[in-house]
Amino acid sequence: MPVPVPHRRAVVLPHQAAPVDDGCADDARAAAVGMPAHGGCLGASRTPQDPPEAAGTPLEASRTAVGTSPLPKDLPESRLPHQDAGRRLSAEEAAAHGGDDHAADPATGVVTRATSDAKGAAGEEPTREESATPDSRPQVSTPQGLTLLLIGEDPNNHVPEMWDWAGRKVRLRTARNLTEAERLLTDDVHCILLDLTPADGAERATGAAPGDELGALRDVLRMAPAHAVLVLTCETDAERAADAVRVGAQDYLFRDELDGAVLSRAVRYAVERKRADLAQRQLTESRLRAQENARLERGLLPTPLLDGSDLRFAACYRPGRSRALLGGDFYDTVRTPDGTVHAMIGDVCGHGPDEAALGVELRIAWRALTFAGLYGDELLATLQKVLENERADDEIFATLCTVDISEDGRRAGLCLAGHPAPLLARAGEQPQLLPYEFGGPALGLLPDARWPRRQVELGSAWSLMMYTDGLIEGRIGEGNRRLGQEGMAELVTRQLAAGLQGEELLDASVQEVRDLNGGELTDDLAVLLLDRR
Are 418 and 399 in contact (CB under 8 A)? Predict the structure, then answer.
């Protein structure tokens, strides 16, 4: 067995009993990680004649050896002991070296030298992390935490350190009064801590009215309606603290019980409660707005004025917009003093609220003009002027169908402005579509257009159905085939043969159109039915 050649003796700690050479350090370090030693070692406390057990366990050897000689090349870096990151020298030997890379611990007198020096002495290159200076290492940016704004007369008011739910330190800003607070109140402020001074002091600091003990809080709530607010007061002023919560603060704290944990929890609770309050308020406002819009839309739907007439009226209306009550389709029916019944149905191009509003304007204008005695071409020309002045875009147009039924109910005058022709079902006859060829263009397309009025014989008993294109443009099955006017006429004929009348006829017809379409129709739909039996 070859005799190991002793290396230069390493510097030892003051509490070590005997010197240990670098070879022993290598063996001990290898044993500490469960690998075989790469060289022999005979320490000062162990002679060549001593049995191997005299050196102690491998763990004791690893505690004794602190040298920095290189380990075997095949030793994984992840298995290196943590205590070998640097080489420790005694204070006396460090002074003898005279280097600047040594720092003595005043408590233990131990000097630590950088690992890069030890590796350099052993012929190894220092790693990039070891050779880099602290200033040259990349800085890791941390996400921004909560920001607290403290408002109070005493700028030195002690506020303990706080941390948010992610372990980040809460930033603190201080303001003496509301003027400074308004300047410091930026978008990154999450919570306001208001120090409620006695009433007189609060009035001086904020300009509140005399006798208003919570004037400062009300001013803060007006200044920052979207921020969480905590109030800070004395334990003897608990009643005013409770009043502050009733006024609008999220919570209150007592100065005598204030510490970092309590304040951190209160700030986090106040921020989340304010967020929940704002969300609930927005939800409530949305519900109230929806209810108001529903009442408004229901009020804009027409109420037929047929007093004194023997005609029966039924209508079905379904807007294409989701959760809407009013669309771009519109209809109306009135009876004038001469006994004539006037009916109208129309469609503004588009499906939004603007189109719905324009449809309401046209319907109201038609009713007013009808009671004024206008009908036929003269009425439609006036409606076109209304459309041209009320539409938001020159490309907006509207289709319209008007019918005026004589007092005896046997004849009717029909005007079409780009609208589908009505379906007439006489007693004992098959339903048929009225002629369309004599109609005129849609309103808003041609400035000097004319709309001729055609006379239609109805008979003694009949049903007249007026509708918009939403009823006939639905698909049939999964293809591109549309229902069309002929398909709609066949569908209504089957429903009439089954004995359906009035609203039952309209509901059954619309439901079958939906079923053929495979679901809800995307366009607005309006159907009006007048019967004489």
Answer: yes
